[in-house]
Amino acid sequence: MGTHATLTVPTPERMSRLGRELAAMLRPGDLVLLSGELGAGKTTLTRGLGEGLGVRGAVTSPTFVIARVHPSLVGGPALVHVDAYRLGGGLDEMEDLDLDVSLPESVVVVEWGEGKVEELSEARLEVRIERALGGSAPEDDLDPRRVVLTGLGARWDGVDLTALAGG
Question: pLDDT (tens digit, 9 = 90+) per residue, 67-105?
Fold first, then answer.
């Protein structure tokens, strides 16, 4: 069944902090599936994750490279940031990317991964970011976000996602 939590995240700063707090819960081999429309805050959240994991390199949207590896500077797992938007074949294509890093030893964050990467791991954390007010104009970028976290698989049993920063 898994565990889950819904948080309201009022500002990009809080979104980044949520990423840092989430990083503290992650372990090598974890798969995080991020969904949300363009500009919802996926990259902001991932940037916070990267800070929390202590990885090298600025986390930017990997749109043009499909996947980017950020090695750890602190002896922890690398962060593999994947944009699956143009990954047609899902898992096989992921393996073809030859990421010179072992996915089981890394934290893998996938944007636009629904329907493509679920088979990478039975256990995964799904993070859906929605605009709380439903707007989509550029000025809505500062609107609060609703973040729905769902932990699936045995890995997430008993993990209290509600402990993360909301509000």
Answer: 888 999 999 999 999 887 776 655 566 666 666 667 788
Report, as an integer, the average pLDDT of 131-149. Answer: 76
Instruction: Tell me which of 29-38, 85-94, 122-131 is least confident.
Output: 85-94
| Three-class HEC string of the chain | CCEEEEEEECCHHHHHHHHHHHHHHCCCCCEEEEECCCCCCHHHHHHHHHHHHCECCCCCCCCCCCEEEECECCCCCCEEEEEHHHCCCCHHHHHHCCCCCCHHHCEEEEECCCCCCHHHCCCEEEEEEEECCCCCCHHHHHCCEEEEEEEECHHHCCCCHHHCCCC
CA separation for the pair 71, 88 (Å, rounded)? 26
CB 152 within 8 A of CB 126: yes
Residue appearing with tokens 């990317």: 97
Q: Are 70 and 55 in contact (CB under 8 A)?
A: yes
Residues 6 or more apart whose Cβ sits within 8 Å of residue 67: 80, 81, 82, 83, 94, 97, 99
Instruction: Indicate the pairing of strand 31-35 with strand 79-83.
Output: unpaired
